[in-house]
């Protein structure tokens, strides 16, 4: 990365970038919204209750889908989150994005944007926005206009500009935006007219359109933000979410459930179900018991040991698909002995990954051979990761100056994830393998949201982690998880920054032809194997058990759950 790139990043982060600043039209709208908000505050509570009653669908006619989810979301504002549990509960229900994937495919499809053009130099992306899209009326917000370019500009300005009135709300950390080095890449987002926006980049980026499908880029309402700011309730913007998505949030009872109602004015038409409930059920066996008892119609992340029983149970079907994911063991390259790549290689040699995958995945996963899943086009089957060899591990530890081993912490998250059904079981097996070569690991665990915060701050020595692909591009793994901009965020928890590696992945993004990109990613993957900032463990198969009364559910190309097209017969 050159000095010019760093200067661009400083300009966007540290100042009010003129292209991200409010236009005069936006300022007039904000003043109007403030006046309207003040008037709305005086509405009698009885009138608001009557309006809600009149617009509610008859209870007897309501069709409710209950989803037994695996955990509590860490939040409901996608720009602030990094985990799939939170994205399922927010960006895939409450919000929409500019672009999407066609169901079950990695083909880009229109969403809030209907068409796009890329300039010949690859630096400007002009998107035409969908007309007639309405924001939800929820939490006292009654929009006075439809979705337009101001909302797109606001969405990205909040993340980009440290002086934006909403930048510091909820902490001012945007880990996905920062981890993907968008402060360096995204020079400006301009409102061309009410239904046209232009993204201006500092350099060509072959993955940029795919990036716009990602959860952190979910579009929010500038008008809602203005109303809350006028009412001195800016914090509610992230706690009481309003979007254009297929479902409106009714209530979130942390640790228990999230309840949604269908958004009847969604631009795709009203969802086929009236109510959606996320029944938060961290234990996979309990999720299966609830599905079998009819307490939910669809469940996340079954225990691999239950799969035979699930597929043999009348009235239950299970969709399967190879996962675009990876589970891995990250080494904190800024901590003690782990700074030495010989130590990292020794720790890798000491782990019997084949035995771990057999025990933990029980047929629903395959051993990883590199940092990319086999479903991605840049996957390199010729990579040679360290094979299980305890004797070689002991020799390498001695060479590195640790003939008697050392002690470290090994972190394991407590809940099931799409890429790793039991981090605790995996940690126990790794702990036993390391003990045989003189390395003493103490296992540490935290509730999922706390785990994300702590590994993002680099408190761990070694940590089990993983990733589910967001956009079908190799950069989403090789860049997002390992680039220098992601250090000290929940993305790059190995705290890995190799400038030669960075130059390769940056160069790959500037090329449009796949053959050239594949060659550059092959070089980057060989550097990864040499440095070994983390040890790839496995790729999980995605299995979604459900009642045979569920219709219209398809496992997306990315490992999330979407219910906008689902119904019950």
Any chance you could write out the topology, listing elements then pairs?
Blueprint: H1 3-14, H2 24-41, H3 45-55, E1 64-69, H4 84-89, E2 99-101, E3 108-110, E4 113-118, E5 124-129, H5 149-160, H6 175-179, H7 182-185, E6 186-193, E7 196-201, H8 208-211, H9 222-230, H10 236-239, E8 247-253, E9 257-262, E10 275-280, H11 284-292, E11 298-299, H12 307-312, E12 316-322, E13 325-331, H13 341-349, H14 353-361, E14 365-367, H15 390-399, E15 407-411, H16 423-435, E16 440-444, H17 448-456, E17 462-468, H18 475-478, H19 499-510, H20 514-531, E18 534-547, E19 550-551, E20 567-568
Parallel strand pairs: 1-10, 1-11, 15-16, 15-17
Antiparallel strand pairs: 2-3, 4-5, 5-7, 6-7, 8-9, 9-10, 12-18, 13-17, 13-18, 14-18, 19-20
């Amino acid at each position: 990365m050159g000095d010019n790139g760093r200067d661009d990043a400083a300009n966007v982060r540290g100042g009010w970038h003129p292209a991200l600043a409010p236009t005069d039209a936006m300022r007039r709208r904000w003043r109007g919204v403030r006046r309207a908000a003040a008037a709305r505050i005086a509405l009698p509570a009885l009138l608001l209750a009557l309006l809600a009653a009149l617009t509610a669908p008859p209870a007897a006619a309501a069709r409710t889908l209950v989803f037994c989810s695996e955990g509590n979301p860490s939040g409901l504002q996608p720009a602030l989150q990094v985990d799939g549990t939170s994205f399922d509960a927010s960006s895939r229900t409450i919000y929409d994005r500019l672009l999407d994937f066609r169901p079950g495919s990695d083909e880009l499809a229109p969403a809030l944007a209907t068409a796009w053009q890329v300039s010949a130099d690859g630096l400007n992306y002009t998107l035409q926005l969908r007309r007639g899209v309405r924001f939800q009326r929820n939490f006292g917000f009654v929009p006075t206009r439809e979705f337009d370019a101001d909302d797109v500009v606001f969405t990205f300005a909040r993340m980009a500009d440290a002086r934006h009135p909403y930048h510091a709300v909820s902490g001012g950390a945007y880990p996905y935006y920062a981890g993907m080095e968008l402060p360096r890449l995204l020079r400006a987002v301009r409102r061309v007219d009410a239904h046209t926006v232009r993204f201006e980049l500092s350099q060509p980026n072959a993955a940029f359109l795919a990036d716009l499908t990602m959860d952190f880029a979910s579009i929010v309402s500038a008008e809602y933000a203005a109303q809350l700011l006028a009412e001195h309730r800016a914090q509610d913007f992230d706690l009481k979410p309003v979007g254009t998505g297929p479902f409106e949030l009714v209530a979130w009872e942390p640790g228990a459930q999230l309840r949604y109602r269908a958004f009847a004015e969604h631009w795709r038409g009203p969802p086929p179900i009236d109510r959606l409930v996320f029944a938060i059920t961290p234990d996979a066996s309990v999720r299966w018991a609830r599905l079998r008892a009819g307490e939910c119609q669809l469940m996340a992340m079954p225990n691999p040991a239950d799969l035979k029983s699930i597929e043999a149970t009348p009235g239950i079907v299970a969709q399967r698909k190879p996962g675009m994911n990876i589970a891995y063991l990250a080494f904190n390259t800024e901590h003690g002995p782990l700074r030495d790549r010989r130590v990292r290689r020794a720790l890798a040699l000491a782990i019997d990954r084949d035995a771990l995958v057999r025990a933990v995945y029980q047929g629903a996963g395959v051993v990883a051979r590199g940092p990319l899943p086999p479903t991605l086009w840049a996957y390199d089957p010729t990579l040679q990761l360290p094979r299980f060899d305890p004797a070689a591990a002991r020799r390498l530890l001695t060479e590195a100056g640790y003939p008697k081993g050392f002690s470290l912490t090994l972190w394991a998250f407590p809940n099931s994830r799409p890429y790793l059904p039991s981090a605790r079981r995996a940690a126990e097996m790794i702990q036993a393998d390391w003990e045989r070569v003189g390395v003493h690991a103490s296992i540490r665990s935290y509730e999922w949201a706390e785990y994300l915060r702590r590994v993002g701050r680099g408190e761990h020595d070694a940590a089990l982690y993983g990733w589910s692909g967001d956009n079908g591009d190799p950069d989403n793994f090789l860049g997002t998880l390992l680039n220098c901009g992601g250090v000290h965020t929940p993305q790059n928890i190995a705290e890995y920054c190799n400038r030669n590696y960075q130059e390769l992945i940056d160069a790959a993004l500037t090329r449009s032809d796949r053959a050239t990109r594949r060659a550059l990613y092959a070089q980057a993957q060989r550097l990864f194997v040499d440095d070994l900032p983390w040890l790839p463990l496995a790729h999980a198969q995605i299995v979604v058990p459900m009642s045979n009364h569920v219709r219209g559910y398809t496992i997306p190309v990315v490992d999330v759950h979407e219910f906008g097209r689902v119904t019950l017969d």
